[in-house]
Design brief:
This protein is an alpha+beta fold. Helix content is 29%, strand content 26%. It is globular and about 40 Å long.
Length: 220
């Protein structure tokens, strides 16, 4: 992923901050079934500073309703395809303590598991799967979520590494977009590191849909 693409992610996070955040309808989580998340649950699913050991928060976790404006940000495809029956869109952004890497987490929450399932290929094939560059290669991120994809590339101007993952957990689609600003410190953005980040996000989404407060963190 190029640094230009990362700046796009930061712009999304910044625009979400302007909208603020709030609550939503009560959830019937805790019954072991995939449920539609409230806006507050979406915000809580996004990792915060406490969950991201070794990283510092660039844009705090924020969620907004997927109105016309935010559908164009979440689903920048013709007709905003992939955002049908979506409820909320959220983002949070972090920079590694040594300033050599950045990561943005994104989430779209749908009103049903079927809606999230139908949007999965539309968004991966039509947009997010291309975020790691044309020469990016697929890699495994383990058995997280009901569906998952990941690509790792070197699409920065000087060959800096970048990666994108997409996961479906119940009624949500989740993305982890990581990039390095220093190709000599690519150990910060490598397959293992990105896998850990994506796994944490998926665990937090599962906890929210079970009616629990998301608590999964990088250190455990």
């Amino acid at each position: 992923m190029t640094m230009r693409n990362y700046r796009w992610c930061v712009a999304i996070a910044a625009s979400l901050l302007l909208a603020g955040c709030g609550g939503g309808a009560e959830s019937d989580g805790g019954n072991g079934k995939a449920v539609a998340l409230t806006k507050e649950q979406v915000r809580e699913t996004l990792p915060d500073g406490e969950a991201m050991t070794g990283w510092k928060e660039s844009a705090r976790p924020t969620a907004v309703e997927t109105d016309k404006l935010y559908r164009s940000e979440a689903c920048p495809i013709k007709g905003n395809a992939g955002c049908e029956n979506s409820r909320y869109f959220g983002a949070s952004t972090f920079q590694h303590d040594d300033n050599a890497a950045t990561v943005t987490f994104l989430i779209i929450a749908y009103d049903s598991e079927q809606a999230a399932r139908e949007a999965y290929d539309v968004l991966w094939d039509g947009y997010y799967g291309k975020k790691a560059g044309q020469r990016a290669k697929t890699f495994g991120i383990g058995p997280i979520g009901e569906e998952r994809d990941a690509r790792f590339g070197s699409s920065g101007f000087y060959g800096e590494p970048g990666a994108v993952t997409q996961t479906r957990v119940g009624t949500t689609l989740l993305w982890t977009l990581a990039a390095s600003s220093d190709k000599d410190k690519d150990h910060i953005v490598d397959e293992d590191g990105v896998r850990d980040l994506a796994t944490m996000l998926a665990k937090r989404a599962r906890q929210a849909q079970n009616g629990d407060t998301p608590s999964a963190a990088l250190d455990g």
